Amino acid sequence: MHDAAKVAAAMTKRARSDQEDDGEVPEGYDVSRFERPSVAVDVALLTVDEGALRTLLLRRDAAPYRGRWALPGGFVGMDEALDDAAARVIEQKTGIRRVFLEQLYTFGAPKRDPRTRVITVAHYALVDPARLAEAREETRVATLEVPWEGETGGPVDAIGADGRALPLAFDHADILGMAVKRVRGKLDYTPIGFQLLPERFTLAGLQRVHETVLGRPLNKDSFRRRMLASGQLEATGDLQTGVDHRPAELYRFARRSAV
Amino acid sequence: MHDAAKVAAAMTKRARSDQEDDGEVPEGYDVSRFERPSVAVDVALLTVDEGALRTLLLRRDAAPYRGRWALPGGFVGMDEALDDAAARVIEQKTGIRRVFLEQLYTFGAPKRDPRTRVITVAHYALVDPARLAEAREETRVATLEVPWEGETGGPVDAIGADGRALPLAFDHADILGMAVKRVRGKLDYTPIGFQLLPERFTLAGLQRVHETVLGRPLNKDSFRRRMLASGQLEATGDLQTGVDHRPAELYRFARRSAV
DNA sequence: AAAATAGTGTCTGTAAGACAATATAAC
DNA sequence: GTTATATTGTCTTACAGACACTATTTT
User: Fold this and answer.
1) Looking at the structure, do residues B65 and B183 belong to the same domain, yes or no?
2) How far apart are CA A156 and CA A65, in angstroms?
3) Which has the least CB within 10 A, A112, A129, A163, A218?
4) Same domain assignment for residues B156 and B238
């Protein structure tokens, strides 16, 4: 018997003690006694393109930090789950649906927004660069420059197409830094890399993605062995085309099969 | 030159473009147009005692979930950082200060609190069991029963001193489950175990803590080698006392030295 | 054939697990 | 001395990194 079920059974057996209720809403209860902060979500939408880690930024056209660059974000609806808010924000700003999306960390320093208290539940998302088209004038895909190694952590810089750093709004350099740190950590033990690739890809392509995210070269032989041994790759039998050398086999990630 | 410094330098060089500001508060700006959720913190205060993973729970004496058991928690002050709120909650409920404390995950399902929208930034903390005395009648240290292996994740059960499951309020079984999952993950590559031990401890004691948290036995020889090779342990030269067999050497964790 | 990368086989070093032998305190 | 655990040493195995070699495509 599952333990959660055990708990439920135990409770029923006790014939619903009078000192306990099941969470019904008491009539007329008032919880609005406290002043409340605003709650937002921000999304670090990461991609790997041309050997660089990239992210989508929007130019702010209102105060505060007007003219600076910010992650797509927005306030959480009163009846909206946090993940749903993040997915909505992505779709509104880019039109992209169905991305890999995960909660990252909640940033709540009292003065992180100079206007008022805004607590933001930061998320990160991973997308195949082919899906990430620059939608609007005020949208830009910037290259991330990570000034630390491994999973040290810390803020990162966003570099525009002209090679100059884009000044970031709020604590978004920290959010991006934490997103990079998290993805690096996950890459070691999770099939997360394929979110950044088209459905079919070569082992060398997968290795390049890993190397770009991790910011360091990987051993080819070992990478190959590890990936094939993981059981998460499925050979398609087809070969790469359009390359001027021996074509590599195309793989796809195995669906999380019903084990 | 550090990259953050580079950014700053680049900005200065551009002589502060007119399309940009530095985040000053515009006069009379109104951000209170939206309805706002309440924001709380909850703390999973974990300890290891007598070979079991334990946590501190409080009996709710008000609706909702009156009579059920809940993590210590409270609303975040309008000018209070999230970590500070969590530390305050711990001190208010237990008197304990200066614990290892880290943000865990933010739970924000719209109906997780039946009264109104409450988003909670869950934290976890690790304490030496000697410091965790049961302070009040309505406070209890419960044993955690983890119905999954490794870092699978999922809710856990809290067992009272009488061996019966304590019914938990809200989504606190999920919060506790995520705390266990996180600590298990961290234990592999972070000096987190010593937070659960007195200052001086034996290698065998440390291994027991690791085994309790991980929920599986560890190889003694390998554990010993790994710990000593990590450079994080410092031999005190003193021996254990009061045992009826050969006493083991006492170690302490090396201060995070100024490398 | 030359160029370029894909893919295979083998060796070596490191670290974990297993097992055995020795050490030392309490009784 | 006996008991119980600490501590050290050695062997085996698994795997990552390194290197050399073969394969296959385009030009």
Assistant:
1) yes
2) 18
3) A163
4) no
Q: What pLDDT does residue B136 have? A: 62
Query: Could you give the number of structural domains in chain A?
Result: 2
User: Which token pair is B76?
Assistant: 């975040």
Are the C-beta atoms of A206 and A236 separated by less than 8 Å?
no
pLDDT tens digits, residue range A40-73? Answer: 999 999 999 989 999 999 999 998 999 999 999 9
β-bridge mates for residue A159, sequence order: A143, A165
Query: Given A162, A187, A212, which residue is the final one in a domain?
Result: A187
Distance in Å from D8's C1' to B27's CA comes to 73
**CB contacts, 8 Å: B28 with chain A:** none
Place of tokens 């000053």: B24
Q: A4–B78: do the CB atoms touch at under 8 Å?
A: no
Q: How many CB atoms lie within 10 A of CB B24?
A: 10
How many angstroms separate the CA of B67 from the C1' of C13?
60
A145 touching chain B per CB within 8 A: yes
Cβ A78–B35 below 8 Å, yes or no?
A: yes
Percentages helix, strand, coil for chain B (3-state, rounded to 5) are: 25, 25, 45
- Give the residue carrying structure tokens 């082992």: A203
Residue B112 CB-density burial (10 A; 0-12 exposed, 13-18 middle, 19+ buried): middle
Query: Does B34 score more than 80 pLDDT?
Result: no
Rg (CA), chain B: 23
Q: How many CB atoms lie within 10 A of CB B14?
A: 11
Instruction: Check if the beta carbon of residue B58 is closer than 8 Å to that of residue B70.
Output: yes
CA distance B12 to B5: 11
- The per-residue pLDDT for range B40-98, each reduced to its tens digit, is 999 999 999 988 999 999 999 998 999 999 999 999 999 999 999 999 999 998 889 99
Eight-state DSSP code of residue B201: B
**Residue labelled with tokens 């090679």:** A163
The model's confidence at residue A256, banded by pLDDT at 50, 70 and 90, is low
